[in-house]
Amino acid sequence: MPIIKLAILTIVYKLLSGVTEVIADSKITDLLEQTGDIFKIFLAILSSISFMIIIGTALVLKISNSGMMYR
Fold it and tell me: Residue 70 falls within a domain, yes or no?
């Protein structure tokens, strides 16, 4: 769920910066664009950490089950 939320926030900030480019000052547009980039970095960090947790959990389960096999 947090991954989906960050993806939606990234898309919203990118679209908002495109819309405000016509209306507002360039500083505000740059701020919104950089905020969207920050959310993109957060999304990459969260996705990679989630992947590592899944792989780590699978490895621990594999190691613990292989010990039970020798009994």
Answer: no
Rg (CA), the chain: 20
Tell the burial category of 31 from Cβ atoms under 10 Å away from its Cβ (0-12, 13-18, 19+): middle
Domain holding 49, by residue range, is 2-63
Inside any domain, residue 69: no
Residues contacting residue 7 through CB under 8 Å, at least 6 positions apart? 43
Per-run averaged pLDDT (10 residues), the chain, 71 residues: 89 90 88 91 94 92 71 59
Q: Which residues contact 34 (CB under 8 A, 6 or more apart)?
A: none
Task: Give the chain's domain count.
Answer: 1
Other Cβ atoms within 10 Å of 14 Cβ, number = 16
Question: For residues 15 and 13, what is the distance between their CA atoms, to the nearest angstrom?
Answer: 5
